[in-house]
Amino acid sequence: MERTVTATPSGARGTARATAHHPHPHTRPGHPLRVAVIGGGPGGLYAAALLKHLDPRRDITVWERNAPDDTFGFGVVLSDETLGGIEHADPTVYQALQRDFVRWDDIDIVHRGVRHTSGGHGFAALGRHRLLEILHDRCRELGVDLRFHTEAPKDLPRTHDLVIAADGVHSTTRETYADVFRPRVTAHRCRYIWLAADFPFDSFRFEIAETEHGVMQLHGYPYAPDASTVIIEMREEVWRAAGFDELDEAESIERCAKIFTEALQGRPLTSNNSTWTTFRTVVNERWSHGNVVLLGDAAHTAHFSIGSGTKLAVEDALALAACLEEQDSLPDALAAYEAERRPVVASTQRAARASLEWFENLALYLDQPPRQFAFNLLTRSRRVTHDNLRLRDARFTEEVEREFGCPPGTPPMFTPFRLRGLTLRNRVVVSPMDMYSAVDGVPGDFHLVHLGARALGGAGLVMTEMVCVSEEGRITPGCAGLWSGRQAEAWKRITNFVRAQAPGTAIGVQLGHSGRKGSTKLMWEGMDEPLPEGNWPLVAASPLPYKPSGQTPRELSRAQLTDLREQFAAAACRAARAGFDLLELHCAHGYLLSGFLSPLTNRRTDAYGGTLEKRLRFPLEVFDAVRNVWPGERPMTVRISATDWAEGGTTAEDAVEIARAFAAHGADAIDVSTGQVVADERPEYGRSYQTPFADRIRHSTGVPVIAVGAISSWDDVNSLILAGRTDLCALARPHLYDPHWTLHAAAEQGYTGPGATWPAPYRAGSRRPRTGRTDAPKPRLSL
C-alpha cells in the first residue's frame, strides 16, 4: 500500500500537493495522529477533511462554539487556482462544489448613472451556508468528529499532537499566545455591512452613490440562482453623518436598500445578524508555537474587495496538509508551511491593502472621465493591469485608451506630456541614480557614457544623479557637483551629446545638499558609513546624526541659511548655462532640505521649525531663489519623501500639503518618493509601493506628479498612466539592467511612432531578435 504526494506546477503557489490514495503503512516520527481544529469555518473544516483523507487513522476533532449554520456573510468567491488545488487534493469536495457554483465573467461599474462593463474576468461563487454543508458532509463521511456549540478545551496542545487554530479574525488562540505570535491588527477607515438580495446580479457589480453625506459604494455578486451578496461600504465619517450609527439593523438595511434602489431593482435587502463593522488587517510575526499553528483569518486577513478571505484559508489548509505529508517532523512541517504561505499571503495583503485604500479614498476619483474611473477601479489592486485587461477585454481597454487620448496603436506610456515649455515625447523618466564616480565633483567619461546610453535608450526624460551645490554638500567623495565653472563645462559636454545624438530626449539636473547624510563612504564600500579619514563637517536643520555611529551635524544659523540659498541659486545658474532642460530640487531622502520638512529631523524652535508651515519655510525659500534664476520657459520639479515610514514623521496628509505649497510657488510637478529620512524606518515594500502617494497628491492638488518606486515593467507604466495615478513614471534599476529599456518596451508592444524613436545607427535592431524556429512543418495526414 502506498500514498502519492504529487507536486504542483511551480507557478501554482498556494495549492497543496497532497493526494491520498491509500492509508499510511506506518507512522513517521512527528507524524500527527491526534489533531484538534479550533474553528468550524471553511479553512478549519477543509484542513480536517484533508488530513483525515490523507490518513484515515488520524483522530481529528473540530471544535466550533457556534451552531453548524451560523456564518458571517452570504456568498464565497473562489479562484480557478484555488479550485484547481481542491480538485487535485480531494475530487469529492471539488465535484460537490462544482454542482453548486454560479459562474460569470463580467464586472459592471456604475457611476453617475453610466454603466461600464468589462468582460473576461471569470468568477465562481456559491453560498457560504452551502460551502459549510459540503465540508460538514465530507468531514462526517471521513469520520471527523464535529463538535458544535462547544468551546475548545484549554489543554488541547497537551492532549493532541497538532492544534490547528482556525478560529478567525478574533482568534482566542492567537491572543493566548500573543507574546509568541506577536500579532499586529490594523483597523481601517471604512464601515461595511454584509447583506443579501433575493435575485442574482448578472455580473460583479460596483455601484457608487454620491449622497449629501458623502460617497457610499455597493459591492455585489451572485452566489446562487436566486441570490446575491451585497456589501455596503463607506468611510466612518460618512457613516456617522448619514446617521447609521443611530439606526438598528432593520433600519440600516432599509436605508441601504433605498440608497441603492436602482441597483437592487427596488427589491429589499436581507441580513444574517448583520452589523456594521470596520475591517481589520491581521499580520503575525510567527504562525506557529510548539504544536499550535494558525490558519486563515487567525493568521492573516485581506480585504474583501479582492475576494480573498476564504480563498486564503482554503489554500492554507491545502499547503499545511501537504507540508505535513512531505516533512519528517512536525516542526519542519510547520516551518515549511509558513515559508510557503507567508510570501503568497504578503503579496495578497499588499494587493488587498491597495484595493482597500482605493475605496477609502474613492472621493478623490469621482471626477475622472467615466471610462478612466472604471479602469482605475479595475486595476486598483495592481494585480489586474493594462496588458492583462487588454487580454480579457480588448474592446473595453481600447475605449479607455481612446478616451485618454491615445492615438490608434499607441500605448499610454508613449503619449506626450508637457511641462511648462518642455514637451516630453513619452512618459518614461530615467530616475536620478547616484553613481559616486566623479572626481572633485567633475562628471567624466563614465557620466557621458552612462547618461548618454540612457538618452539613446528612448526615455522621454533622463535625470542626473543628485548634483551637489557645494563641496561640503556631497554625500561621498565621488559625488558630482555644480559649484564650479569647470563642473558646469563638464556637464555641458553631456547635454550637448544628448541634444546631438538623442534628439527628442530631454535631460534634467537634480540639485541637492547632503545635510546630515554627508561625508560617507562610496555606496559599495559601506552605505551611510563615515569615512575612515578625510571627513568634512556636516550641517543640518538640527544637530541629530543620521546613525548613532555617524557624525553629528551643526545646526544651521540664519547666516548659513542665507549662504545655502545663494549656493543653490548659483548652481542653478550654472545648470542653465550647461544646457539642462529641467531642474529638480531634491527635498527627499533625509538630505538637507528634506531634513527641514520632517518633524523627526527638524527640532528647531525658531521660524524654521515647529509647524509644517514653518518647516516648509526654508525649502520654499530655496525653491524661490532657484526659480528666480532658472529660465522661465524651463520647468522645475521637486522630489519629496511623502512618508518617513516612521512613527511621528511625515504623513501622507502632510505630503499633500507639502506638494500644494511647492505648486503654489511655481513647481511644475512633484516627484513623489518616500523614506530614507531616518535610519530606523519600516518601509512597506512591494510592487509600485510608492505610487499611492503620488496618486493621492495628484488627485488632491491637481499638480502633475512623477511616480517612482519598484515600477519595473512597461505594463506597470501603462497601467499607472492610463488609470490617472501619475503623469510620468521614473524607473531606476530597470535602466541599470537595460539602458534601452524604453525602446525595448516599444518593440515588445509592437509600437513604432514618435513616442519611441530609434537612433539611426540602431534601427536595424528595432525588432526583437528571434530565439529559435517556430515554423516547423505541421502534420497534415491522419492514418
Automatic annotation (TrEMBL):
InterPro entries hit by this protein: Aldolase_TIM, FAD-bd, FAD/NAD-bd_sf, OxRdtase_FMN_N, YqjM-like
Domain (FAD-binding) ranges: 161-349
Domain of life: Bacteria
Residues in NADH:flavin oxidoreductase/NADH oxidase N-terminal domain copies: 413-746
Compositionally biased residues, Basic and acidic residues: 772-783
Compositionally biased region (Basic residues): 19-31
Compositionally biased residues, Low complexity: 1-18
Region Disordered, annotated ranges: 1-31, 754-783
Protein name: Bifunctional salicylyl-CoA 5-hydroxylase/oxidoreductase
